[in-house]
Every structure is written in structure tokens, then in C-alpha cells.
Amino acid sequence: MAYNGSGGKRLCTGTDLDVERSNGNNYMSQGEPRRKREPPARPNHILLYTIINPAYPITVDVIHTISTPHGQVQRIVVFKKNGVQAMVEFECVESATRAKEALHGCDIYSGCCTLKIEFAKPERLNVFKNDQDSWDYTLSEDVQPVQRSAPLLQSPQYTGGRPQPYNMDFGSGG
Length: 174
Prior knowledge:
Elements: E1 3-4, E2 11-12, H1 17-21, E3 46-52, H2 60-67, E4 73-79, E5 84-90, H3 93-103, E6 107-109, E7 112-119, E8 134-136
Antiparallel strand pairs: 1-2, 3-5, 3-7, 4-5, 4-8, 6-7
């Protein structure tokens, strides 16, 4: 792929995409079945980042650092089921579009962690906890989920004797 740019950022010019799709030859391979391509997703304020050749760990901090220059990030979820992907929710579609145009095809680190960015389908990301794989930046940092130190129920009080443990039959054994 041909890249144009200077410094750490490399921008894909798209001039060699046809050659790359044709396995490096100037004709399409007839031996490979053609897959039906889905139409590109409509613009959305949530982007799907696919990290190609992830040689270094990718966390919400890394994704947040590269995404915030393009707009206010609200939520990030990183998942590592099949490779490394992340969903980034921006405040508005315009910010997401700027980030997609600026970051698609760029390397996070020199020579690796190349970004493939497309618009995602969800309308909102669900973040259940703030950690290295998910973060909700709309919550203030002093607001933490309520953690319970006490059990939900106190020990039962019985008068007279001690109850038998559940499903423990000390009877005939048969």
C-alpha cells in the first residue's frame, strides 16, 4: 500500500488498493470466490476500530489518546475475541467522521497496530465498569459504583435449635 505523509502518521493514498486486492497482480484471481460486500455503514457517532498486527497492548488509554484530538470521546470498549477491536463513541457524527478520515490506515505505533476504521451500527455503547478494556468518560471520576461490604442478608435467627444445612440428609443413606 502506498502511504503519503511525514512523521509518525502515515496516510493511505489508495493508489495501490486495486493491486493489493488482486493479490499483487494486475488481474483478479479467478480461483478465489467473490464475497458479497455489505454496503458501507451509514455515518454514526460510534466507530469500530480494527487493529491489524497488534504487536503492543491496546487499552482504552491508547485509544483515547489517539481519538481525542478529533473530538470529545464519550465511551470506549476494547474487545479481544477475534483479534483486537474497539468501539469508540464520540459526542457527535462530525467528530467521528473527522477521526475516521484522519486515523483510517494509520499505524498507532511505527510499523504495527494499523487502524482500519468504519462506522459502527450501535447507537450507544454500554460500559459496566471503568477498567483497561472499557471506560465511560461521561461519568465524573469521583462517582464510583456503590460497593457493598456487607452481605445482602444477615444470618437467620432461629429459636430452639440449629437448622440442618440445605439438602444434607444424614438419614439411612438410601
